[in-house]
Amino acid sequence: MASELTKDRLLQAYRTMRTIRDFEDRLHADFATGEIPGFVHLYAGEEASATGICMHLGKDDYIASTHRGHGHCIAKGVDVMGMMAEIWGKKTGTCRGKGGSMHIADLSLGMMGANGIVGGGGPLICGAALAMKLRKLDDVAICFFGDGASNQGTIFEALNLATVWNLPAIFVAENNGYAEATSSKYSVACDNIADRASAFGMPGVIVDGFDFFAVHEAAGEAIERARKGGGPTLLEVKLSRYYGHFEGDQQKYRAPNEVAHIKEAKDCLTTFAKRVTGAGQLTQAELSAIDAEVAALIEESVRRAKSDPKPAAADLMTDVYVSY
Amino acid sequence: MSYSNPASVGIIANPASGRDIRRLTAKATVFPTIEKANMIQRVLGALGAFGVGHVMMMPDMTGIAAAVERAIVAHRAEAHIPWPAVEFLNMDISESVTDTFNAVDLMVARGVAAIVVLGGDGTHRAVAMRCGDVPITTLSTGTNNAFPDLREATTAGFATGLLASGRVSRAEATLANKRIVVEACGRCEVALVDVCVTRHMHIASRAVWQPEALEELFVAFAEPDSVGLSSIAGLLQPVRRDEPHGLRVRFGRAGGSGVRRFVAPIAPGLLERVSVAKHGLMRPGERVRVVSGAGTVAVDGEREIEFGRGDTVEVMLDSNGPRTIDVARTLHIAATRGLLDV
Question: How confident is the model at residue B330 (pLDDT cuts 50, 70, 90)?
C-alpha cells in the first residue's frame, strides 16, 4: 500500500496541522493590532491539504505556493520562527524581512516561494520538473493554486506543457469556493476544476480537502506515479478557508454561519483526532501534548519576532540581485 | 406520437459521480457535468414522447440543473414534441449524499411513477435506501458500476415513459433485486452489489483498488463480465441477479495452502492478481458475522465505515432491494404489442 501511516507519521501529521492552525490563528489576532506590516492571507481551515500532500515530499522535491502560503511553507518544513519574523518584517526572517507574508521562500527546502501572482506557480514548477527530468532524478514538483488561479492562462499553459513534456508535476487546485469575493460556482465554467484535466490528457481527481486521509492517499498515488515517470496529475482539493480573503475582509459574500457550520461539521483537526483516537492509533493525551508544544512554539515565535531587529538602511541593496 | 397522462417522473443525477481517485489509480472514465445534462435531455425527450407531463429533478450546485434549464429554453424554440414541465425541487443543497436522500423523499411523497437515476453504484445505493417500492431506471455515470445499466439514455427514458404512462405494467416492466445489509459500529448500510471488509484503517479517498487490503467480500450477484470487486466473485462462481443467493469470498495470502490466485479487473483497466482462500454461497436471511482486526467496510466499492479491533461487522443478504426497470424487456413488450404505433 502506498505511503503507510505509522504512529510517528500520524503524530507528525497532527503536529503540522496544529502548527499551521495556531500560526494562522495567532496572526489573525495580531494583525488586528496594526503592528504587522503588509497583507496576510490566512490558510486556517485548509491544513489537511498542505499537510497531506507535503508529507510525501523530501527537501529535494519542489513546491510553488500562493498568496495564501503559510500552510504550504510550514508543511514543507520552513522554520516557524523565521516565518513569523519574516511576516513581522524583521531581519531574522526567512527572507531577512524583505519579503513578508507573500514571498516567503526557502530554496534549501524546495520551497520556491509564496507568490503574489495569481497562477504564477504553474510555469515555475514546470521548470523545476523539467530540470528533475533532465537530471534523471525521481523528485517531483508541486504547484498549489486556487480556484481563481484555475481560470488563469498561466495554469492552462502549465497543464499543457506538463503533459507535452510528461513532467513529474502535480497541480493541486485548492478550491476554497471563493476567488477573493467571487464564488467559484460563478467563475469556474465547468464547476469542477478536476474536469479540465482530461482536456490536457492527465488524470483529474476530486479530493475532500477536510479529510487528511483522503488528501494523503490521493496525493501519495499521484506523487508515486510522477516519481515513476507516469506524468502529471491534477488534484482538486475541495475545502474552505476560515478567515477572509485577506485580514480585514468583511466577507459579506458568505452566507451567515457558513464558516461556523463548516467548523462544526468538517474541521480537519477535529475529524483527524476523532478518527485516530477512535481507531486506537493515537491517544488524546498524545494529541494534547502536541497542542501544548505547538502553543509554546507559536508564543515563542511571536515573542522573538517582536523583539528582533528590523532590516537596517544598509541592508536595502543586499540579497536583491543574484550573480550567475 | 403524442399521449397525455398525469404521471410524474423523478430524475436524480449525482453531480459527484465519476471523479474519484480511480481516475488516477486506474483508467476510469471521466464523466463531465455537461454529458450528464445531455443525458437528462435525452430522457426528457423520451418521456415527452409518451406525454409524461411532469418531471421532478434534484437541484445541484455544479451545473447539471443549470445546463438542463438552459436546454429547456432552447428546446421550446425548436422542438415539435414537448418535454415534460421540469420542476427543480425546492430543497437545501448540502453537496453530499443527503441531497439524494432528501430529493428521493420528496419524489416518493409526491407519488412519482418512477425515478431515473444517473450515477454509479453509490448513487443507486443511496436512492435505493429511500425509494421504497418506486421503481428506478438505472443509468451508469460512475466509475466501475455493476448495478446500473451502461446504456443510451434515450431508450432508458423510453422504457420509463412506457411504465409511467401505464402502457406496460409495473409487473412486466420491473425486476426485483437483492441487497446486502451491513451493520457495524452502530451504523447500518445497504449495498446493492457488494460489501467488502478491508484492512484500510480509514475511509480516506473511499475507493478500494489494492488487492492486498482485501479481507472478505460479500456479493449480491456476481457477473464475470463486470468490473470492480464483484468481478472477483464473478470469476470464481457466477451468480445471477435473479438467483436467491449471493456469494462470500475470503481472501488469503499468495502462496498459502489452498489459495487460488487469478487476475481480476478490480477497476477499469486495472487487472490485479487476487488470492482467494475460500468461497461459498451466501444464503438469504443468514446473518454472517465477520471476524477481523481493525479496518473499514466498503459498501458497493466505497469505504463507508471505520471499525476498530473487537468491533462487530454483520452482513445479511435479502431480497428487499429496489425494483428496477428492465429496459430491454419493456421495449420488447412494447414492440411486440405495437404500443409505439401512431
Answer: very high
Average pLDDT over residues B145-163: 94
Domain that holds residue A183: 7-306
Do residues B220 and B159 share a domain? no
**Beta carbons of A279 and B201 less than 8 Å apart:** yes
Domain count, chain A: 1
Q: What is the pLDDT of residue A324?
A: 64
B128 neighbors B192 (Cβ within 8 angstroms): yes
Q: Does A324 map to a domain? A: no
Closest chain B CA to residue A208: B205
> Number of structural domains, chain B?
2
Same domain for B168 and B196? no
ipTM: 0.81
Both B171 and B227 in a single domain? no
The answer, for A203 touching chain B at a CB cutoff of 8 Å, is: yes
pLDDT tens for A146-193 read 999 999 999 999 999 999 999 999 999 999 999 999 999 888 887 789
Report the length, in residues, of chain B: 342
Contacts of A233 in chain B (CB under 8 A): 24
Q: Does residue B310 lie in a domain region?
A: yes
Q: If pLDDT is split at 50, 70 and 90, which confidence band does B77 have?
A: confident
Which positions in chain A touch B34 (Cβ < 8 Å)?
Answer: 190
Write the burial class of residue B171 (CB in 10 Å: 0-12 exposed, 13-18 middle, 19+ buried).
exposed
pLDDT > 70? residue B2:
no
What's the CA gap between B313 and B216, in Å, rounded? Answer: 11
CB contact set of B32 (below 8 Å; sequence gap of 6+): A190, A195, A198
Range of the domain at B109: 5-177+322-337
Which cell goes with A57? Answer: 515530499
d(CA B106, CA B111) in angstroms, rounded, equals 9
Contacts of residue B62, Cβ cutoff 8 Å, sequence gap at least 6? A191, A192, B15, B16, B33
Nearest-angstrom CA–CA distance, A226 and A166: 9
- Looking at chain A, the whole-number percentage of residues with pLDDT higher than 90 is 92
**Residues of chain B neighbouring A281 (CB-CB closer than 8 A):** 201
Question: Any chain B CB within 8 A of the CB of A280?
Answer: yes
Q: How far is CA A60 from the centre of its chain?
A: 17
Give me B192's grid cell.
Answer: 446493492
What is each CA distance from B102 to A201, A262, A315, in whole angstroms? 37, 20, 63
The string of pLDDT tens digits covering residues B35-46 is 899 999 999 999
Of B34, B61, B205, which is closest to A185 when you measure between CB atoms? B61
- Spell out the residues 6+ positions from residue B242 whose beta carbon is closer than 8 angstroms to its own: B175
Closest CA–CA distance from residue B18 to any residue of chain A (Å): 9
**Per-residue pLDDT averaged across B200-224, rounded?**
95
**A216 close contact with B: CB closer than 8 A:** yes
pLDDT at B5: 60
The total number of residues written for chain A in this structure: 324
**CA of A219 to nearest chain B CA: how many angstroms apart?**
10
Is A224's Cβ below 8 Å from some Cβ in B? no
Q: What is the pLDDT of residue B28?
A: 82
More confidently predicted of B247 and B256: B247
B296: nearest CA in chain A? Answer: A279
**In chain B, where does DSSP find H-type helix?**
22-25, 33-49, 64-78, 97-109, 121-128, 153-164, 170-173, 229-236, 327-337
How many Cβ contacts (< 8 angstroms) between chains A and B?
79
